[in-house]
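Fold this sequence, please.
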Amino acid sequence: MYDEQRDAPAVGPLAGFTVGVTAARRAEELGVLLQRRGAVVQHAPALRIVPLADDGELLAATKELIAHAPDVVVATTAIGFRGWVAAADGWGCGEELLGCLRGVELLARGPKVKGAIRAAGLTEEWSPSSESMAEVLDRLLTEGVEGRRIALQLHGEPLPGFVEALRAGGAEVVVVPVYRWMPPEDLAPLDRLLDTTVARQVDALAFTSAPAAASLLSRADERGLLPELLDAFRHDVLPACVGPVTALPLQASGLDTVQPERFRLGPLVQLLCLELPARARTLPVAGRRIEIRGHAVLVDAELRPVPPAGMALINALARRPGWVVSRADLLRALPGAGRDEHAVETAMARLRTALGAPQLIQTVVKRGYRLALDPASDEKYADV
């Protein structure tokens, strides 16, 4: 029998890394996936969802469609479609909505939406194998949309370019705004995430919706932190998005993002498991192999948590492996250390204790400290 405890790796691929989660929906699921792989998770919902029962805009759109049935309905998300039907039931017009949908061309973006449609007693006319809205748009435009009335069930923000392309082709488009996003009622967690991101105390931020990404950028702008946030993303903090639509607000701000090939939470986590360790600095030091991660160091594959001051020191030493780094330079690397070089000695002692191998860092009398880089590696790192 498989012994998960015995056969599992001692250190998860995300051990030593901190990942920020901005999702409002499915945040717990994403957090569990990350924690199982060793990550420390900082959750701060960047938005909240307006309850469907209180959403007057959705009610108005539903009544409009019942009164004036469309030719085509495009369903984009399973949870959104199910929520729409449930909300209509609550308003007393659920059967009228289903009757309306039975008489139209019903398109489903993917298999999950298809399942939600069939669970409601309806049948979709077509669904793309790619789960791509671009393929849905191509089909509609190829069929011809001039003079046709098309309803688009959204989940969050409008799909960029989709509505515009249909209207340019002559269609009348009715947007069904299922689950509208709004800023969180309590901004404190989001502000804490912004502060830790700007301070480079997280290694990656995971985004599962475009509204969450836009909300984070908007809040940073309100607080005057947008330039610092963008700089953190460009140099130190990895923005990871579940798919290309989610990435659009970040890309519009000039940021590069990473995205999995399949737009799901599992592949997003697997991508982080590849990307973050690949960004860690690995060095042969004093006969050991050290890997410097976000808030910890792997010493011969053993995870050694390190306090923030210690991480600042070892990162400063690792930028010039094998070279002596002066106390003055190390003092400048210490957050909030002031001008007392004694702070370097205190932080260095704690760092050596945390690493469990004091010989990794050598003291060079009257000069400073250096990583005890293995001699065979000196030439390789001479020009670093």
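The first helix runs from residue 4 to 7. The first strand starts at residue 18 and ends at 21.
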